[in-house]
Design a protein that fits this description.
2 helices, Rhinovirus 14, subunit 4, alpha+beta, elongated, three-stranded mixed β-sheet
Amino acid sequence: MKEAIHPELKPARIQCACGNSVETRSIRGDFKVDICSACHPFFTGKQKLVDAEGRVQRFNRKYKRA
């Protein structure tokens, strides 16, 4: 196995928009996500509309029927 070809992993904190945070390791460092397993409808069993940046409106505008 070759030496010194693997990236350095450093501690990272991943923060969700819901306030949940996860401690892990990453080459990227800290970052934020829009949705995580604590608030995703598949894992919670609750249905909710996740609309980030008006994507629903953009979809409806693009595919609206004449």
